[in-house]
Design a protein that fits this description.
Layout (H helix, E strand, L loop, with lengths): L1 H11 L1 H45 L4 H9 L6 E9 L4 E4 L1 E7 L5 E8 L1 E4 L2 E4 L1 E5 L3 E9 L4 H15 L6 E5 L1
């Protein structure tokens, strides 16, 4: 009975009533925001996982490793390290299965889009429609054996042609 009497006393006091109402409203807002976040994050996780899987499939060995390996085959050049600066991360477009629902008049009432997958041996992979490579801004190369200006110029020109950038955006340094 003490609890019931305490509740009655709290509701009788107008100041307490207002404080409790404000506290209740704040708790409801927090609850709504958290529920919204939980349900929206599940949808975003699927899209993010698709993009991550596509990136893993397309870049098992990085371009820096491939270029380092090629440059280290040049006579007198060894221990090559490369850093490539990108302006953007590129763009991957996946194929979607689209399901449209039409009403009696023939107009579309709803559209449902799901990522299309290929399934091989129990593993799903998203079907990639288009992949655009990231835009290269500049390159730094550090290697042993690149003292001569002529060799530095050849490496700059080769990397400029390979990556589609001007050779002045490639800097070559002696290790």
């Amino acid at each position: 009975m003490n609890y019931l009497e305490t509740l009655k006393n709290i509701t009788k006091d107008n100041k307490r009533k207002k404080e409790n109402l404000i506290l209740l409203l704040i708790l409801l807002v927090i609850l709504l925001v958290s529920v919204n976040y939980i349900f929206n994050s599940d949808e975003n996780v699927e899209e993010t996982n698709v993009e991550e899987k596509i990136k893993e499939q397309t870049s098992s060995i990085s371009i820096e490793d491939k270029i380092s390996e090629i440059l280290s085959q040049i006579s007198g050049v060894s221990e090559v390290s490369i850093v490539i600066n990108y302006a953007n991360e590129g763009n991957t477009s996946v194929v979607y299965d689209t399901k449209e629902t039409m009403n009696e008049q023939g107009s579309v009432t709803s559209v449902e889009k799901n990522v299309a997958y290929n399934e091989k041996s129990g593993e799903k992979t998203a079907i990639v429609e288009m992949f655009s490579a990231p835009k290269v801004e500049g390159v730094i190369v550090v290697a042993k054996g690149v003292q001569s200006t002529e060799l530095k110029q050849k490496i700059s020109t080769a990397l400029g042609n390979l990556l589609g950038i001007a050779s002045y955006k490639v800097q070559v340094f002696e290790k």
